[in-house]
Amino acid sequence: MATDRRTFLKQTGWTLLGGGILISIGSFFPAAGRALQKVPSEALYGFIVDTTTCIGCGMCVQACKTENQVPDECYRTWVERYIITADEKVFVDSPHGALHGFKPAAVEGQIEKAFFVPKLCNHCAEANCVQVCPVGATYTTRDGFVLVDEKHCVSCGYCLQACPYGARYMHPVRHTADKCTWCYHRVKKGLMPACVVVCPVRARQFGNLNDPESTINRILQEARISVLKPETGNNPKTFYVGLDKEVR
Amino acid sequence: MLEALTQGFLYPNEIEVHWGILIVLYPYITGLVAGAFIVSSLYHVFAREELKPVARFALIAAFCFLLFACTPLLFHLGHPERAFNIMFTPKFTSAMSGFGYIYTFYMIILALEIWFVFRPDVIRLAQESSGIKKAFYSLVALGAFDVSEKTLHLDHKIITALAAIGIPSACVLHGYVGFLFGSLKSNPWWSTPLMPIIFLMSAIVSGIAILIVSYALVMKLKGKAVDNNCMQSLCSYLWGFFIIDVTLEILELLTMAYEGEESWGIISQLIGGRLQLSYVALQFIVCSTIPLVLLGIVSLVKLKKSTRNTLGIISSVLLLIQVLAMRWNVVIGGQLFSKSLRGFTSYFPQFFGREGLLVALILFALPFVTMYIANIIVPYWEEE
């Protein structure tokens, strides 16, 4: 089929214009099924929780409360205890976020397995909270921290509803959304997050995902890891070692 | 103390319900706006002449509800002084960021339509009055006193155009509210593409219902009879829209149950437990079944005028409760279970306090007070 130059140029022009419009519409929406968007020259931070070593002492929760002056009954991090009995009953608790550790549980039946799961903000690469914040007060830094601008937050609470992990709370004094920052203020001074420092069994690890020599990268390469609620497509940067299927 | 009201396991930040009674009221009022506007447009755009007796009131009602649609949000916001950030620094990946623009656009359309519809009345009032009153009406008329046939014909064209733009705007305004909930993948009770269309249909239902109740009440107070065709038509529209609405609501539930995803475990417990009264009993058994039957009779069987009116009014009141219950069950229901899918929290609205029942009642009463004042300024129940 013969096409003259004029028609060809016209068709190409329309195709490019159409494609351009489609791409710009698409750019409003988060891409599906992508990996962490690493830029090798910059730091991109990540967090690893090892559920096989956590002993549920609650030191991390206490350290976080002190370091970040977290109000009572609000939690930037907490620890959950899972007890699974021989008849497949699952008992989960986290009294005061495990601020004072755990007392022996009154569980009926033979206990098959029990373990602790520390939780915190997952600083997702495709964070729901960032997507839904109507004023851009929740944002992602270039090095991967999801933070809240407390001077700009209108306190609508949409991010609290959008976070599938329950990681956010409304600060009762500041009246703004609040959550774990991976101790951004410490990391920027070359320190580790408070919870990582105090963990007696190294169940919490933090580091630069772009640094091939970092501990976090070594664990990511060696261990079987997973993330919480991968089906949400949020692409968390808090990774878990030894996650049981009962954990959500 | 709060722990006593919980059951099972919740993430520790989930014990408190953040969106309370005011966030239930917000979509309820917005829905009344959309519904009332659709009725006025049925007359202005689709020339349903039988709706003429309520067309002007419908427009005023939509505007008065719209004036106060934002107030529950302002009372809810922790930083109401920053409310305009949503328009000054919007982030367009957020469904919520469109709110300010949609709301403002719709407000302008409605205000313009009202001005054109009531222009002849305002001019007449300006001519009949004197002193400050005359100055006021002249100001409202914006100095345009031409009521020649040619001008009125042009007005009519503009009104039709505005009403035509208003219909999709009203649908966007309320569909958007549904989208706010329906697009949240974190919450299985909310996350369904049916949510915007359910919100829209229930909005139209509540809007028609409030018009029926108000119309009947005002006519009773005035000692006049309701218009036969108008009432019959409103009841038929109400029935039709409610059939679509309730079908979608049932479809949504059936889909969830049939798909039986992981979340169905907690949702079925939610329905059978904490929402048993407000969802199963109120929203479905009492406030859906009875109006469906009664309105069916009203629409299909030839009844005595007074019987028809009574059945229509009873159905409308029940449907106003149905839609309110639906808003409650969506907004509150979605926050009663943990995203860990392992436990429940509770919610009881306080009476006093910034986000309490009293504030909600006052905010809901304000549109009606405004309608009353508007009727003193320009008596909209009078015939054109």
Describe the 3D structure:
- The complex is a heterodimer of chains A (248) and B (384).
- Chain A has helices at residues 5-26, 59-68, 128-132, 158-162, 184-187, 194-198, 215-222, and strands at residues 45-50, 77-85, 90-93, 111-120, 138-140, 146-148, 169-170, 177-178, 204-208, 225-226, 238-241.
- By secondary structure, chain A is α+β, with helices and mostly antiparallel strands.
- Chain A has a single domain, classed as Alpha-Beta Plaits, CATH 3.30.70.
- In chain A, the strands form four sheets. A four-stranded mixed sheet of chain A has the order 9-1-11-10. Chain A has a three-stranded antiparallel sheet with strand order 3-2-4, covered by helices on one side. A two-stranded antiparallel sheet of chain A has the order 5-6.
- In chain A, a hairpin with a 4-residue loop joins strand 2 (77-85) and strand 3.
- The longest helix of chain A has 22 residues, at 5-26.
- Chain A is globular and about 80 Å long.
- The model of chain A has no long low-confidence stretch (mean pLDDT 91).
- With 384 residues, chain B is mostly helical.
- Chain B has one domain (18-241, 256-377): Up-down Bundle (Formate dehydrogenase/DMSO reductase fold).
- Chain B has 14 helices and two strands; from the N terminus they run E-H-H-H-H-H-H-H-H-H-H-H-H-H-E-H.
- In chain B, strands 1-2 form a two-stranded antiparallel ribbon.
- In chain B, helix 1 runs parallel beside helix 14 (357-377) and helix 2 (52-69) packs across helix 5.
- Chain B is globular, with a radius of gyration of 22 Å.
- Chain B starts with 6 loop residues before the first strand and ends in a 7-residue tail after the last helix.
